[in-house]
Amino acid sequence: MLENLTVKDIPGRYKELVDNIGIEGFKYLVQMHGGTLFYVPTFETVNKLYRNRKIRESFRGDYNETAKRFGMSRTQIYNIINEK
Question: What range does the record give for the signal peptide (predicted)?
């Protein structure tokens, strides 16, 4: 039934979502998550996760050098490297 859904069928309050993710993305959300509530993280949160992964991948044992490379404090780098 969803295969024939078009933008014209979408209620106004969902138009912005469809404009951003497209009709196929909207169909996927409806099919997989329809009727549920879920949190979408902020850009800053996702960016921080990516940054922390890059820090861990590039860390070679020198907290000071890594801190300089990423423009952060040694303590911040230590905490990221030693996160559980």
Answer: none
